[in-house]
């Protein structure tokens, strides 16, 4: 009697759960990763600022690191989304977007044009300083992005997608994320007062800045396929706010109180730093298929950022109402 093989049904991988961009699980993870991104940016900038002057401007380290991780995540987007899509959003939008900052980059360039430190140098040196920060930041960011993609492509054959987390694990991660961001409130009051202008004040404003950018991108980026309006709006808004806060911190006639200066510094490093992003900006440039779209988006965004700062600083600086550097005192 012939042996009839028993049909075996193929093992079907569980279908990944679809998450709305504004679902609880997504927003709950963006908060703590925004906090981690700000801490990493402030920490890298502090490490790169030392006596004698660094070999490159301190903010370049944060921009390069954020773009490296962004490139890595972009290359592994599909495995991430098969596993847990909110984790991908938390790493890219939350961590990388908060680690890199477009507004801080633009302000650094603008202060170079002005020679804000009153260094003994010629006008040509001011131009070279601004050009160096412009060109090298873009070059380093793009190189880091592609290097991150290369690293991901090398390890992707060994990257086995794990099964999606269970319902309990997803809820636990969301609650942990909320508690992590909520911990920034007692940290502001319990840690030493000198930490407030250095870090803890910025941590309070990190998630609101990232959330604003995320909402703008989800609502506006699809309006024009060749020009991400959401990212552009977030970068321009954040640059305008940072310029305004810097003006308030540079008032020569009526200096602000230490508490006000600390709040403004927290808004600058936290809200504006997380509202604007270089990693997403560079990733969007890299993903455009035509060279014309790449240059149009990059140049429009860069020139707009500088024009915004000229409009905010120009009249006040030239009339002597504010100084080139900050006059604000801290607690």
Give the helices and strands, then pairings.
Blueprint: H1 24-47, H2 59-75, H3 77-83, H4 85-99, H5 102-114, H6 123-155, H7 167-182, H8 184-190, H9 194-204, H10 206-220, H11 229-249, H12 258-275, H13 279-287, H14 291-318
Helix pairs in contact: 1-2, 1-4, 1-7, 1-9, 1-10, 1-12, 2-4, 2-6, 2-13, 3-4, 4-10, 4-12, 5-6, 5-11, 5-14, 6-13, 8-9, 9-12, 10-11, 10-12, 11-12, 11-14, 13-14
Give a verbal description of the structure:
The structure is a single chain. This protein has one domain (24-155, 164-318). The chain is built from 14 helices and no strands. The chain has helices at residues 24-47, 59-75, 77-83, 85-99, 102-114, 123-155, 167-182, 184-190, 194-204, 206-220, 229-249, 258-275, 279-287, 291-318. The radius of gyration is 22 Å and the shape is globular. GO terms for molecular function: fluoride transmembrane transporter activity. The chain crosses the membrane at residues 22-44, 56-76, 131-152, 172-191, 297-318.
Count of distinct structural domains: 1
What's the helical proportion of residues? over 70%
| DSSP strand tally | 0
Approximately what portion of the residues adopt beta-strand conformation? under 5%
InterPro entries: FluC (IPR003691)
Subcellular location: Cell membrane
Membrane topology: Multi-pass membrane protein
GO molecular function: fluoride transmembrane transporter activity
């Amino acid at each position: 009697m012939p042996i009839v093989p028993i049909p075996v049904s193929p093992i079907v991988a569980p279908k990944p759960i679809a998450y709305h961009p504004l679902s609880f699980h997504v927003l709950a993870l963006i908060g703590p990763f925004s906090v981690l991104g700000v801490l990493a940016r402030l920490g890298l900038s502090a490490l790169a600022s030392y006596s004698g002057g660094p070999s490159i401007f301190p903010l370049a380290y944060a921009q390069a690191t954020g773009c490296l991780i962004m490139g890595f995540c972009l290359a592994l987007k599909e495995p991430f989304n098969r596993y847990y899509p909110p984790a991908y959003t938390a790493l890219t939008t939350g961590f990388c977007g908060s680690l890199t900052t477009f507004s801080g980059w633009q302000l650094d360039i603008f202060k170079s044009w002005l020679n804000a430190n009153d260094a003994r140098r010629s006008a040509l040196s001011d131009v070279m300083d601004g050009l160096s920060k412009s060109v090298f930041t873009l070059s380093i960011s793009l190189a880091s992005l592609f290097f991150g993609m290369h690293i991901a492509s090398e390890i992707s054959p060994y990257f086995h997608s794990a099964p999606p987390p269970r319902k309990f694990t997803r809820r636990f991660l969301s609650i942990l994320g909320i508690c992590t961001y909520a911990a920034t409130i007692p940290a502001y009051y319990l840690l030493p007062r000198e930490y407030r202008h250095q870090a803890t004040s910025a941590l309070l404003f990190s998630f609101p800045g990232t959330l604003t950018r995320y909402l703008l991108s989800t609502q506006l980026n699809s309006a024009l396929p060749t020009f991400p309006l959401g990212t552009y709006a977030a970068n321009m808004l954040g640059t305008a706010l940072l310029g305004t806060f810097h003006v308030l911190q540079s008032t020569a006639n009526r200096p602000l109180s230490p508490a006000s200066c600390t709040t403004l510094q927290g808004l600058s490093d936290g809200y504006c730093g997380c509202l604007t992003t270089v990693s997403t900006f560079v990733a969007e440039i890299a993903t455009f298929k035509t060279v014309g779209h790449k240059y149009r988006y990059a140049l429009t965004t860069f020139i707009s950022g500088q024009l915004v700062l000229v409009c905010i600083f120009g009249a006040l600086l030239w009339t002597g109402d504010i100084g080139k550097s900050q006059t604000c005192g801290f607690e």
